[in-house]
Write a structure and sequence with these properties.
Radius of gyration: 15 Å
Shape: globular
Strand content: 25-35%
CATH class: Alpha Beta
CATH superfamily: Gcn5-related N-acetyltransferase (GNAT)
Order of helices and strands: EHHHEEHEHEHEE
CATH topology: Aminopeptidase
Low-confidence stretches: none
Structural class: alpha+beta
Pfam families: Acetyltransf_8
Keywords: Antibiotic resistance
Organism: Actinocorallia longicatena
Strand order of the largest sheet: 1-2-3-4
Mean pLDDT: 96
CATH architecture: 3-Layer(aba) Sandwich
Protein name: N-acetyltransferase domain-containing protein
InterPro entries: Acyl_CoA_acyltransferase, GNAT_dom
Distance between the termini: 27 Å
Number of strands: 7
């Protein structure tokens, strides 16, 4: 079944809220889930007020997850923190992702979503030279999904964790634009 991506719309906010409330998602995203918080955090991207791009990942047309994509140049604080660990080229991008339903995890869906996101990134952003992703070292399923999608670990170091219960150690993965 094919994976596709479409931009998040306000009508998706209830679905995002449901996914963010799932224990397997909340563990790593540590996100407020009130309707107001979801609107505050995802609304600006849907209206074009923030440079981040949010997508719903679809499996054969059915929503299964969320992908966020951004240029490090648009978020200098994140870029500067990561640049203490690895080189961050000017046109580097990053992604974040989640699979909303626990019963869909552990079945190879994560790498497929990442692969589709990478393919679309190369098409949508011709200046993008690479994608770099920092993952909490304890989030093994996420960094394994990156590896299965072809990214390589290029560094590790301390970054502020999304969830304060996590250690600061992060693994950094990278994939360069195909020639």
């Amino acid at each position: 079944m094919p994976i596709s991506l479409r931009r998040v719309e306000p009508a998706d906010f209830p679905q995002l809220r449901t996914w963010l409330e799932q224990p397997h998602v909340a563990r790593w995203w540590n996100h407020e889930t009130s309707p107001e918080a979801v609107e505050r955090d995802f609304g600006p991207a849907t209206r074009g007020e923030e440079p981040c791009e949010d997508f719903i990942a679809l499996l054969d047309g059915a929503p299964v997850g969320l992908v966020q994509r951004s240029r490090f140049a648009d978020y200098p604080g994140e870029r500067d923190a990561l640049a203490k660990i690895v080189e961050v080229p000017v046109e580097a991008m990053t992604v974040d992702y989640l699979i909303g339903d626990l019963d869909r995890t552990g079945r190879g869906l994560g790498p497929r979503i990442i692969e589709e996101t990478l393919a679309r990134t190369w098409r949508d952003h011709p200046a993008a030279t690479c994608v770099i992703v920092a993952i909490a070292a304890g989030n093994r399923p996420s960094w394994r999904a990156l590896e299965k999608a072809g990214l390589h670990r290029v560094g590790e170091g301390d970054l502020e964790p999304d969830n304060p219960v996590d250690e600061p150690l992060h693994y950094v993965y990278r994939i360069d634009r195909p020639l």
